[in-house]
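[09:14] KT: can someone run the structure on this one? pasting the chain below
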Amino acid sequence: MKAVDSISNTTDGQVIKNVEIHGFVKVTSANVTIENVRIIGGSQLGAIDLHLATGHTTISDVTIVATSDQLAGMTLRNATVTRADISGSQDGIDSWGGPGPTIVEDSYIHNLNRNRAIDSHDDTLQVSGGDQTFKHNTLLPYDGNDPMNSCLQIGDLQGDLVQLTFADNLCNGGNYSINANANNVKAGKVTAGPLTFIGNRFGRNYRYGVKLHLGAPFNASWSHNVDDLTDKPV
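[09:31] RB: done, structure tokens below
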């Protein structure tokens, strides 16, 4: 792979492919494709940062090795991510609301980096609104000693959560593997559509349990989720 520096501005339809980036990619346009890329480093927000993207972004076969206390491996909105390998950041993926859905599938998020100076709450996935689907991912916040905060954190929602589907994932770690914050929903500031958890497998390296705060006001369905060791329902 050719080594290049950070890409801090993109154009509509740009393809970023077959390079090793020392730094970060900030997408500032629409219909950008990032494919077969390795990123070493990152920025304050993320090694791949879509918060200024103006349209859909496609990301596939990407490896991110964060080398600083950046917030996330990726900050997403209106994106499709396939086969990403993310390590070394505080959060793996922070997915915000946007004009279109975000899908993350067949990805591996592991070896998070807790910032002890601020006692960071590290999550392999965190959402704060939008239309979100996560399927067939391996999510390992547990690093052999520290369970971190969660596999999936439904954060203090900043916008309406249209829907969330969490399906066929392997999840191991977290204080609670799945955790939700309902404050802004209860206050009527945002709405939260159906939450679907189906066909997931959960390891036992959590600190307290598999799930917390998925009751009212959330409309959550929970089915065919099992213990990874025994195949028994959790």
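[09:33] KT: thanks! The helical segments are 183-186.
[09:34] RB: yep, looked fine to me
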